[in-house]
Design a protein that fits this description.
By secondary structure, chain A is an all-alpha fold. Helices cover 78% and strands 2% of the residues of chain A. In chain A, helix 5 packs antiparallel against helix 11 and helix 8 runs antiparallel to helix 11. Chain C is of the alpha/beta class. Chain C folds into 2 domains: 159 residues, Rossmann fold (3-Layer(aba) Sandwich); 80 residues, no CATH class. In chain C, the strands form 2 sheets. In chain C, strands 6-7-8-3-9-10 form a 6-stranded mixed beta sheet, sandwiched between helices. Chain C has a 4-stranded antiparallel beta sheet with strand order 2-1-4-5, with helices on one face. In chain C, helix 3 runs parallel beside helix 6. The chains are: A mainly alpha, B mainly alpha, C alpha/beta. Chains A and B meet through helix 5, helix 6, helix 12 and helix 14 of A and helix 3, helix 4, helix 9 and helix 11 of B.
């Protein structure tokens, strides 16, 4: 354990400082809401990382899974009176089943066809929640969603809810880390890198692709449920196709296959949104420009930029050391 | 409910929107054949065409033919520039296909939000092109603008067919789609060909968008749903096969129109996507089998 | 051990393998040679499950395996390398070999999430086993590098190591010497003999005649998808039909 602390001292200090800042800011309800949302989107981005970053399966339909999680949780809680935490878990499980179902055809498809299938899936969910008014409340959505109750502790403020969300973010990161550094994770990466060779080494490629979809769907569904509890209100517009693109952007901006990437990505994109809140007309435009800038100039994401800087600095210091060495020898 | 005039009206409606899907789907297939890519901004080329056309026709007061021609030219340039100065640059940086898809998704957002700033964030009225509100057709009356859409789509499809099969340029395009190295070794400028492919697809989409202006009005999300259905049609017909795209596009035109009339208006789009998902699940290579599975 | 029984495969009108029969004994190094386009890799693809034959049987340890998916065939004890190297480029050398252990390990998703003892033990064992294989292939000192950063010869060796990690009885090597220089080829010859001595049966496609003649116990010659000869290296070298095929075949 000591070595872990020593190895990651900088990261631990950074996290501690961020937690303190967050807790101070979160005294204001509005900031607590933003911090909670960042956590929720970080979970979605993490789930996409498992699917896209590691397994190489693109999804532009995750808003649909997010919607299923949010609506199923809400409906179970409000229509059937299921305890709130149970509703959250069931919402995630139903989303996982949906992800499993869509993965059965999706795992056979490549590239454009996979993208298209996921887009179609997202659109279908969006249209259904929009039109099935008696159940989903249609375009008006569902309001007054009760607070989340965690074993008797009612999360009746944004702050409490945000803390709970961030505990789950930490759990998600741990789970992701453990999956990736396991036999299953290596199978995922092998599929991304070379599906033919992976199959030749005994990996059931379809089975693992479906597994990646299901894991990703579970986490996204859970995030959807958390969203419903945090906001207390859901409507279809939160779950449109643009949202799916934004999820991918968050992941790419932060950097795929990294620990911190999804959190950084979701934080930056959400802050951009909040900062430009007053300029609603420009918001989409800013996002669009953002996506293009990331793709063109920072394809490895923010974490990638950091590593590049680190590598450059190392090179510099190595060079310096070499020069000194040369000087000494002379 | 099943009388001849009602059905005829529905068929004309289905043909109109289906032909739009068909031509847009041809554009998708063309881009896929020539560059192996998928363009999520195709619907926004159509939408942008409507805005550009509106500007020429209403704001600048040009005559309708000239407006169409200028829209074609402007949108051709937009498509060409997109391919040569965005997509190619990304590809040269070694971007994988997922990044290209996201790039076109970003472009789509850029266009949709850009037009709201440049023109208006609400629906603009496209003035009637014809002096008569309706013309008699067999036993019913039809808005001439609807027939114009059908006519333009048909002409575009036929023209594209002849362009690809009967002109030298079309041959070059098909050659580079088949084998880039071979094509460039016989002196075909493959980069230029790809740019022109995108330009053509965008130009056709833009002209259709302008033609749709009087029917639906001009607004930023005009192309979004149309593009998705056109793409559904292209895939259903066999992605990469332009004639399959025509059949697929018409199919979805009919599905949508008749579902709205006889099943449910609210669920017409849901049904389209359900059909698409089913087709992708059971026969992903479409009617004219194209290879899609690794 | 492996019996190829009247295998025919057609792609459209093209017959890539026509009624090929041959048999590989346990502990052999068996060579498959022939001019370019003779259908050697096609036969490999059938044995390893990438193609299903149009007709005929592949019998491995008394069991029909033709047409089974390649991951299942790997589980039965057949592993292969590829002519155009198919490594997991962004993974390290060690990780590449560990993917090879996939079929030999059992830890599932739940084990991974809860980091169970079973998973941790298995992981340690795999790492140890993979280092051993890498040592055997003489590339253990590179184990922490990205696979794509290896020199060509080492990449070929890594492919063999990765295949060995899946504990196969039969190892299919598809042109393992392609692109190697002379001294690398000599080393590879020794390695292949060492692999055989370790108890693996080796099925080899190779263009380098010197290597084939030196290591193989038996050789089968294909031309235009048809078997034209089979026998010991000495017999093959003296076979007039083989000589004609190579001289007339353009290679």
């Amino acid at each position: 354990m000591k070595t872990f602390v020593q190895k990651n001292l900088k990261a631990i200090i950074a996290v501690a400082v961020l937690v303190v800042i967050a807790l101070v800011l979160a005294q204001k309800t509005y900031y607590a809401l933003i911090i909670g949302l960042i956590g929720i989107y970080a979970i979605v981005a993490d789930s996409l990382d498992i699917l896209f970053g590691y397994t190489g399966q693109i999804s532009l339909g995750h808003a649909g899974l997010f919607a299923i999680g949010a609506y199923v949780t809400t409906l179970l809680r409000m229509r059937l009176g299921v305890p709130s935490l149970v509703a959250l878990v069931l919402g995630a499980i139903v989303t996982m089943l949906a992800g499993f179902l869509v993965a059965i055809p999706a795992s056979k498809l490549v590239k454009h066809f996979l993208s298209l299938l996921m887009i179609a899936f997202g659109q279908m969910v969006y249209l259904i929640v929009n039109t099935w008014t008696p159940v989903t409340g249609g375009s008006l959505g569902i309001g007054e969603i009760p607070y989340l109750n965690v074993f008797g502790l009612v999360l009746n403020s944004n702050l409490k809810c945000a803390i709970f969300i961030w505990i789950l973010v930490a759990v998600c990161m741990l789970v992701k880390y453990r999956i990736i550094n396991s036999r299953t994770g290596r199978a995922f990466i092998a599929i991304r890198e070379n599906p033919v060779a992976a199959r030749g080494l005994g990996i059931d490629v379809r089975r693992y692709k479906i597994m990646a979809f299901a894991i990703s769907a579970f986490l996204t569904g859970m995030a959807g449920g958390l969203y419903a509890y945090l906001r207390g209100f859901i409507s279809p517009e939160t779950f449109n196709g643009t949202q799916s693109t934004l999820f991918m952007t968050m992941l790419l901006f932060g950097g795929i296959t990294t620990v911190a990437g999804p959190v950084i990505g979701s934080a930056v994109l959400l802050l951009v949104k909040e900062v430009f809140q007053s300029l609603a007309l420009y918001q989409g435009l800013i996002y669009a420009v953002f996506i293009l800038i990331i793709l063109f100039f920072f394809p490895n994401g923010a974490v990638g930029v950091y590593y590049n800087m680190q590598a450059a600095m190392k090179k510099k210091s190595n060079k310096k050391a070499e020069e000194q060495e040369v000087a000494k020898n002379a | 409910m099943f009388t001849f005039p009602v059905i005829l009206r529905l068929v004309i409606g289905a043909l109109m929107i289906g032909s739009v899907y068909a031509v847009l789907g041809m554009g998708y297939s063309l881009i896929y054949k020539a560059t192996g890519l998928m363009n999520l901004a195709m619907g926004d080329f159509l939408m942008l065409g409507a805005f550009v056309g509106l500007t020429f026709y209403k704001t600048l007061g040009l005559n309708i033919y000239l407006s169409f021609i200028l829209t074609f030219v402007v949108m051709f340039i937009v498509g060409y520039v997109t391919q040569r100065y965005l997509i190619t640059v990304l590809l040269n940086k070694g971007a994988s296909f997922s990044y290209i898809i996201l790039c076109t998704a970003g472009l789509s957002m850029l266009f949709q939000n850009g037009v709201q700033l440049i023109w208006a964030p609400f629906t603009l009225q496209f003035p009637a092109i014809f002096s008569k509100a309706s013309v008699p057709f067999l036993s019913i009356k039809v808005a001439p603008e609807n027939l114009l859409v059908l006519a333009i789509a048909t002409v575009s499809a036929v023209a594209l067919h002849f362009f690809l099969n009967k002109t030298r340029f079309g041959t070059a395009m098909r050659a580079s789609a088949l084998d880039q190295t071979a094509a460039s070794s016989v002196g075909i400028d493959v980069g230029l060909t790809k740019g022109i492919t995108w330009g053509l697809s965008a130009a056709l989409a833009g002209v259709l968008g302008m033609a749709l202006g009087p029917v639906y009005g001009v607004y930023s999300a005009l192309g979004a749903m149309i593009a998705q259905k056109a793409f559904a049609g292209a895939v259903t017909g066999g992605y990469g096969n332009i004639y399959g795209a025509v059949i697929g596009g018409l199919f979805y035109g009919f599905v949508e129109t008749f579902t709205a009339a006889y099943v449910s208006t609210a669920y017409k789009d849901v049904i389209t996507f359900v059909i698409l998902i089913v087709i992708l699940s059971v026969a992903p290579n479409g009617i004219f089998k194209e290879k899609v599975i690794e | 051990m492996l019996k190829i029984d009247h295998i025919t495969i057609k792609f459209g009108g093209l017959v890539a393998n026509n009624d090929v029969c041959t048999e590989i004994q346990k502990g052999q190094i068996f060579g498959l040679i022939g001019p370019n386009g003779a259908g050697k890799t096609t036969l490999f693809n059938i044995v390893s499950g990438f193609y299903a034959p149009t007709d005929g049987k592949v019998i491995f340890n008394g069991e029909e395996i033709q047409g089974l998916p390649s991951n299942v065939i790997n589980g039965k004890g057949i592993a292969r390398t590829y002519q155009n190297i198919n490594l997991f480029k962004k993974m390290t050398v060690l990780e590449n070999v560990m993917v090879g252990c996939h079929g030999q390990t059992k830890a599932n998703l739940a084990d991974a999430i809860f980091s169970t003892k079973k998973k941790r033990l298995e992981e340690e064992e795999s790492i140890e086993k993979c280092h051993e294989i890498l040592k055997f292939m003489e590339i253990d000192h590179l184990s922490h590098l990205k696979a794509s950063s290896l020199p060509y010869g080492a990449q070929r060796r890594l492919e063999i190591a990765r295949a060995m990690a899946s504990n196969p009885q039969l190892l299919l090597l598809d042109e393992p010497a392609a692109g190697m220089n002379l001294s690398e080829k000599d080393e590879l010859t020794q390695t292949i003999l060492k692999i055989r001595d370790k108890g693996y049966t080796v099925f080899l496609v190779e263009h380098n005649m010197k290597l084939v003649m030196r290591v193989c116990d038996n050789i089968c010659v294909l031309n235009h998808g048809i078997k034209i000869a089979e026998g010991t290296p000495a017999e093959i070298q003296a076979n007039p039909e083989v000589i004609a095929a190579y001289l007339g075949g353009g290679k």
